[in-house]
Amino acid sequence: MTDKCGTLGSVPRSGADARRRLQQAALELYQERGFDRTTSAEIAARAGVNERTFFRHFPDKREVLFDGEADLRAALMQSVAEAPGELPALDALLHAFRRAAQILEDNRAFREPRLRIIAATPTLRERELAKAAMLTDALAEALRQRGVADRLAGLAAATGWATFHHAAQDWIDDPSRSLEKHLLQAFDDLRGLAS
Amino acid sequence: MTDKCGTLGSVPRSGADARRRLQQAALELYQERGFDRTTSAEIAARAGVNERTFFRHFPDKREVLFDGEADLRAALMQSVAEAPGELPALDALLHAFRRAAQILEDNRAFREPRLRIIAATPTLRERELAKAAMLTDALAEALRQRGVADRLAGLAAATGWATFHHAAQDWIDDPSRSLEKHLLQAFDDLRGLAS
DNA sequence: CCGCATTTGTCAGTCACTGGCGCTACGGGC
DNA sequence: GCCCGTAGCGCCAGTGACTGACAAATGCGG
């Protein structure tokens, strides 16, 4: 019934490949019709697989857009761990965020359509916030492993992430300056606020 | 077919009353069976109304638990506006949070079961994060109306809220000290981090 | 060539949520 | 007392996200 081999010929059905096609199809459809006007069946159809397969690769419709987040988290945690030994908490975070900024700037074109879709869809913003919360938890844990006092780690991670996020927002609104510039300014602003 | 007037007799069907019964029923069922093991039909049945009525009062299953949030937001914004004139941004926020802390401490028993349910349910945590994001946006706006620089308002609101939330978390873990104590300590910690 | 594991297709089912329609109870104007 | 507009509700039918179970296919080592 489905054009399993009809449209694309004998595609390498390696599993990871279907996953990529599903991500691509979802991204396209979310752009064309908007998130809530595209059904999971449509995504699966464009990817050339069954609807059920979609939910085997992703737990729900939203998660398709949040796939690289685990990598970002890992990179951030590693950067925090590798930060110069006696740097205080916020500086260690800034060190990690500068690395993350590099990554974000490199594949900006790649992430931009995704950001627009998320920004336009409340339910996707919710999911994004949840991912951010998981990320700050991970950052707090990384700070603790650095020796940051248990009580301070969570607070430092939360405020640090808020500052990073704020910088990223500024960068989106004004891409003429680099993310790193925005980041440094945001951390300066933070210290100014708390003085 | 339904026991519309059968079980409870001629209840005052004033609309706002059905809403309260729905909230109560949902809270009970979420406690008894957990959020995802209770259906909207069950909530409606216990409240003595039709399932459709549930969705007339609340846009979705989660929102039942987040009803007072608008009040909290209004109270916070008013407190920020009423804060002594030349207080810097973070201090104005602290002023508002101390008022909010009073409110939270007063109906702690009222909110505690709700917190447990939310903490135990990922999808409810997502919604809570979304509400918090709306709240920080409102705080940023309140700060701007106070004359806080446009660029700083968002950052101050985000870090301030993170600090408040952190204090509230500490308070839940250690209720022997007052929320206000935790709040003051958290803001001290924040200034310590940024020094 | 044969099991064996992984991936997928198919089907049936649950449940959140929506639109539409008709009923009914209530409050105000006459 | 009567009419009428409105608001809240019950009811029904429908869409769409997601799940569990089972069978078919695909590819790989023996």
Q: Which geometry of chain A do the CA atoms define?
A: elongated
Strand content of chain A: under 5%
Poorly predicted tracts of residues of chain A: 1-12
Tally of DSSP helical segments of chain A: 9
Average pLDDT score of chain A: 92
CATH homology group of the largest domain in chain A: Tetracycline Repressor, domain 2
Query: What's the structural domain tally of chain A?
Result: 2
Annotated CATH architecture of the largest domain in chain A: Orthogonal Bundle
The description of the largest β-sheet of chain A is:
none
Oligomer: homodimer
Find the CATH topology of the largest domain in chain A: Tetracycline Repressor, domain 2
Structural class of chain A: mainly alpha
As a whole number of angstroms, the C-alpha radius of gyration of chain A is 20 Å
Q: Secondary-structure map with pairings?
A:
The structure is a homodimer of 195-residue chains.
Chain A: H1 16-33, H2 40-47, H3 51-57, H4 69-82, H5 89-106, H6 108-120, H7 122-145, H8 150-173, H9 179-193
The first copy, chain A, binds a DNA duplex (30 and 30 nucleotides) through residues 1-2, 4, 13-15, 18, 39-41, 49-53, 55-56, 59-61.
